[in-house]
Amino acid sequence: MTPFCWLGAAGIVAIEGSYVPQIVRLFRLKRAEDVSHFFPLLNASGRVLALLYALSHGETVFVGGFFVGIVLRLVLLGQVLWYRTRSAHRLEVLT
């Protein structure tokens, strides 16, 4: 590890942690009509590719960060799909 690996660690925490407020917001609102389901799906796909790259180069700081990022993006995607499905089901019941 390089002496400046803490810079990478701080950057990965900031980048991956940026999804937590959106996840909390969706949890509180219990709806996700204004969030595209393609955004977290494409973002998680990109993180998987970045994780594979980091693994191939032995970048342990980034491996951990990208893994956490994938989990957060999958949680966000799950929320979007769950809340949209529930919302659609409620609309069917009302009509």
List keywords for this structure.
95 residues
Determine the structural class based on helices, strands and strand pairing: mainly alpha
Strand count, sense and barrel status of the largest sheet are:
none
Shape descriptor reads: elongated
In whole angstroms, how far apart are the ends? 60 Å
Percent of residues in helices comes to over 70%
Order of helices and strands: HHHH
Could you give the topology of this structure?
Layout: H1 5-17, H2 20-29, H3 38-56, H4 60-94
Helix pairs in contact: 1-4, 2-4, 3-4
Structure description:
This protein is mainly α and 95 residues long. It has a domain at 49-95. Helix content is 81%, strand content 0%. The chain is built from four helices and no strands. It has helices spanning 5-17, 20-29, 38-56, 60-94. It is elongated. The protein starts with a helix and ends with a helix. The mean pLDDT is 88.
Summarize the structure.
This protein has four helices and no strands.
